[in-house]
Amino acid sequence: MKFDDILSDVGDFGWYQKRNYILLLIGWILTAPFMVLSVFVLAMPDHRDLSANLIEYIQPTTFKNLTSLQVLHLYDNELSTIEPFTFINLPSLRDLHLTRNNIRHIREQAFGYLPSLSQLVLAGNPLNCDCSIFPLWSWLIERSSIATNAKCSNGTLITSLQSPALDICNPDNCHCFNGGKCVANGNELACDCIGQWTGEFCQESQCISHECGSGDCYIEPINGTAQCLCDDRYVNFCPEHIN
Ligand SMILES: *[C@@H]1O[C@H](CO)[C@@H](O)[C@H](O)[C@H]1NC(C)=O
Ligand SMILES: *[C@@H]1O[C@H](CO)[C@@H](O)[C@H](O)[C@H]1NC(C)=O
Ligand SMILES: *[C@@H]1O[C@H](CO)[C@@H](O)[C@H](O)[C@H]1NC(C)=O
Question: Where do the coiled-coil regions begin and end (predicted)?
């Protein structure tokens, strides 16, 4: 017997099936609003208002990659430093409001890939205009389409700072040897040396005059003296291996 033949016995899509079908639909209709709700609940808002929230610190990359964010309000908080990579890759961000925080330092690369940014509102922050301002200053000079009222703690507009005065803060004019990095140190740049290297340009090392034999010289981090490392032991001199 074929399956279709059963239908001729029991009757096809009749009143009984229609009633069951409609009862089933009532259940689906009730769930429909919940399906639609996710459209609104999971949507990315264009505006975020985090003003007057006593925020003291923003974790780097907190606002990374929010592609549809257009306006971000962070005024009247208690931020003191904007860390590197805080506001990056926000292609739609137009207005960033950071008014009346306590921002003194904006670190290098705090802002990156903000192609739509037209307003950076920073009034009411005592920005420190020593050499640490150089990255922000040069970024603002390059991106002259960004309107900003950022001021130094003495009231001078950041964008009116003069290039010759800041030359001394330009990392291109600072050279460190042996892997040292130029970092802002008050109104000048200084070399931040690594490993055994010291001196103004990281050109000096106690290891230069410290003979270690077959071992490697390193600088003891606590007392700063040259030591030798041989076979996991720290000594003053490593005798040649005797095979
Ligand atoms: C952010 O976007 C960049 C470039 O589109 C991508 O490489 C990165 O993985 C994204 N990061 C996150 C946390 O989504
Ligand atoms: C404020 O500080 C900047 C940077 O140190 C300096 O160039 C400027 O002349 C100062 N302005 C006043 C009014 O003191
Ligand atoms: C420095 O520290 C090392 C390792 O702790 C020790 O062996 C050495 O004697 C110290 N040098 C001085 C001058 O204190």
Answer: none
Which residues lie closer than 8 Å to 130 by C-beta, 6 or more apart?
Answer: 169, 184, 186, 187
User: pTM of the prediction?
Assistant: 0.69
**Residue identifier of the C-alpha nearest atom 2 of ligand 1:** 65
With a pLDDT cut of 90, the percent of the chain lying above it is 47
In this prediction, residue 224 carries a pLDDT of: 81
Q: What is the CA radius of gyration of the chain?
A: 33
Ligand nearest to the CA of 154: 2
Ligand 3 geometric centre to CA of 235 (Å): 9
Quick check: 119 and 142 in contact, CB under 8 A? no
Q: Which ligand sits closest to the CA of 218?
A: 3
Band of pLDDT at residue 62, cut at 50, 70 and 90: confident
Token pair, residue 31, equals 């769930």
- Residue with the smallest CA separation from ligand 2 atom 5 is 129
Measured in degrees and rounded to the nearest 5, phi and psi for residue 70 equal: -110, -35
Rounded Cα–Cα distance for residues 187 and 61 (Å):
29
94 lines ligand 1 (CB under 6 A): no
